[in-house]
Amino acid sequence: MEYLVTAREMKRYDEETVSRIGIPALVLMERAALETAREVERRCPAKQGGKDPASGVLVLAGCGNNGADALALSRLLCERGYAVEVVLAGQEEKASPEWKIQRAILANYPVRIGRKPQGREYTVLIDGLLGVGLNREVSGEFAERIHFFNACRGLKIALDLPSGVHTDTGRVMGCAVRADLTVTFAFAKRGLFLFPGREYAGEVVRKEIGIGENSFFGRPPGMFRYTQAPGSLLPARPVSGHKGVFGRVLLVAGAENMAGAAVLSGTGAYRTGAGMVKLLSVRANRAVLQSSLPEALFATAEELEESMDWADVIGVGPGLGRKPEALEILGRILRESFLPLVIDADGLNLLGENPGLQEELALQGEKGRKVILTPHLGELSRLTGIKAAQLKEDMAEYAMNLARRLHCVVVGKGAATLVCREGEPLCLNTAGNSGMATAGSGDVLTGIIAGLLAQGMGDFPAASVGVYLHAKAGEAAAKRLGEYGLMAGDLAQGIAAALQK
After folding, report:
1. Could you give the CA distance from residue 56 to residue 47 in angstroms, rounded to a whole number?
2. Structural domains present in the chain
3. 416-449 burial by CB neighbour count: b if 16+ within 10 A, else e?
4. Structure confidence by residue, pLDDT tens digits, 327-383
5. pTM to 2 decimals?
């Protein structure tokens, strides 16, 4: 996994590395510049003597340490044969000590330094205007520099974070650099993977510069993402195991004419490794379900008590509908069972419409029941009473507040899905693709998470790994079919391909 840090966390780890470990700030800066110079050389080699237009580099530098990184990079690129022009922004008299040292060193090199760009055509453009500490709207000369940068052609590289993107939330602070590549140092920043910042960062490359986990001193970051093969995250399967060992999943899904939701969630559970799946639905769906997923058992609402006794895990909501009988089933599942529970889709809508059920859920969560909610933005809005536009501003905070209130795991679904639970770091999913934004995708996710719970995973690991596996299944399916043609059924089939890797 990879840590994703806030501005405050990054500042703390930087300071700890300098003050407690003893690596000077200028050494860290030099390493950052050197790693970026290598990326520039690899992507756009300089021509001999730096006279060819392909050697032209524009560097925009503020007066903080991000700008100091840019000045150090300017020197290294000059040494490697690039024709470098540096445009400064900000008050030099208030510059950081490291910036002033880098500025004095750069004065000894044949680098043009000024306050206004001299040209309009460059092969490489470097953004070193604003660092991770930005906390107000961008204006004045910084906004002018950003607009100029974006209007130019050439390979655009941001140092650490595109200027104008909020480090913690990914929000654009008035205007922001649109980079082709962001070279981020030590740890990736949250804003590089949260929208809309993710759209401004381009390709993200993380470079080691000497600030590592030994700089935590007992305070690790509060967010991470998975990057490894998903199969390595799943529970081991004993050779002597049988279908009962790998868990029994009860999926309460599919109102009349909504049998597809039950099929998709059931397939997701089976493809993830669950030993047995029972679909509890209406009688009218029996023929469709048994022909579409013959591996699954079938039951009706009259058999709910017996089915709950049989199961190890319950998933409820996909295609369930919001009629009184659906509400009764959800209420019984909450009151009469203490099994691990995944609630999705109409199950969430019923919760949002019935505060009493939320109170029951919170009480059971407080007693230790494993409960996972999987709301998309609209469902999260109904559960919290907060408008979707406001939720978008800080999805992590609002989803975590709901997790605290109901004592459960909350999976805030979206282009960048967040998994939250009180006492755990946030898990941000950065895998997947646009083809997954299709009807039934969430039903597959419900089955995946329920399947992992059935195999003995805890609620937070099952949710976070489940989201990641779901996304990697989407990538595997898109590789075969493309993003435009992707359907939810392809996601279910893509699980096996993702796990084989």
Report:
1. 10
2. 2-43+52-224 (3.40.50.10260), 230-500 (3.40.1190.20)
3. bbbbbbbebbbbbbbbbbebbebebbbbbbbbbb
4. 999 999 999 999 999 999 999 999 999 999 999 999 999 999 999 999 999 999 999
5. 0.94
